[in-house]
Specification:
Helix 4 packs across helix 5 (63-76). The chain has seven helices and ten strands. It has helices at 4-7, 13-20, 24-31, 44-54, 63-76, 99-108, 169-182; strands at 42-43, 81-85, 92-96, 113-118, 135-140, 159-164, 188-190, 204-205, 217-219, 228-229. By secondary structure, it is α/β, with parallel strands linked by helices. Strand 6 (159-164), helix 7 and strand 7 (188-190) form a beta-alpha-beta unit. The chain has two domains: 6-97, Arc Repressor Mutant, subunit A (Orthogonal Bundle); 111-219, no CATH class. It comes from Hibiscus syriacus. One of its GO terms (biological process) is defense response to other organism. It holds the Pfam family WHD_DRP. InterPro entries: Disease_R_plants, LRR_dom_sf, WH-like_DNA-bd_sf, WHD_DRP.
Length: 230
């Protein structure tokens, strides 16, 4: 990944000009999109909720309106593409980021935002880990995959998305208590298994979830086996 000073005279130069022209709150909203994988369809409503959870939209009753204005502003400046429109009101439902724009967002969030694929061996290697990591997406890509152990040391973590393959949910069940116990600064936690669009089998939420006092967004969509708090 290119360093920012090198990018000023390279392929990212036009993007840097557009980025520097953004108001400060809009800059952090854009760069936060680095948490999504490349070619991911980003839902507008979901993204606005995630911005809210991180405190990017201020406080009060106008956050949704501010979020929609920010989203439309970024779309107008071509920071997103391939829009999926709502047939009823012509509004944008989902969009993608161009590969170059996605790489640019990752550059801006280097050391703070990571997408980690764990396949049973990956958790032994921590090249992705940085003490300032704030936002992480973990893809459990094998039935033996586990949440990477270095992640539990990321005490400043604000966002965690866990995508699990259909066979790894038992491992995820066993790890949840530690996630809740150690990562107490989380503001956003997504366990909805969006990557595979499969019904997961998280069966219970450990009582340690009560430690997440800063949590503003929790998604458990698709967990039909979830019945109670342990």
């Amino acid at each position: 990944m290119w360093e920012l000073d090198e990018a000023e005279s390279g392929l990212f130069s036009p993007l840097l000009l557009s980025y520097y022209d953004l108001p400060s709150p809009l800059r952090q909203c854009f760069s936060y999109c680095a948490i999504f994988p490349k070619d991911h369809k980003i839902g507008k409503d979901l993204l606005i909720k995630l911005w809210m959870a991180q405190g990017f939209l201020g406080e009060g009753n106008e956050m949704q309106i501010v979020g929609e204005e920010y989203f439309d502003n970024l779309a107008m400046r071509s920071f997103s593409q391939e829009f999926e429109m709502d047939e009823n009101d012509d509004g944008i439902l989902r969009c993608k980021m161009h590969d170059i724009v996605h790489e640019f967002a990752q550059l801006l969030r280097k050391g703070e935002c990571s997408v980690v694929v764990s396949n049973g061996l990956e958790e032994q290697r921590a090249e992705w880990y940085h003490e300032n990591v704030r936002h992480v997406r973990v893809i459990l890509d094998d039935e033996q995959a586990m949440i990477p152990r270095p992640l539990y040391s990321a005490k400043k973590l604000r966002s965690l998305i866990v995508d699990s393959c259909p066979h790894s949910t038992s491992t995820l069940n066993a790890s949840l208590w530690r996630v809740f116990d150690q990562l107490t600064c989380l503001r956003m936690l997504d366990l909805s298994n969006n990557r595979y669009r499969r019904q997961t089998s998280i069966t219970e939420l450990p009582h340690q979830i009560g430690k997440l006092i800063y949590l503003r967004y929790l998604s458990l969509e698709g967990n039909i086996g979830l019945e109670y708090f342990a």
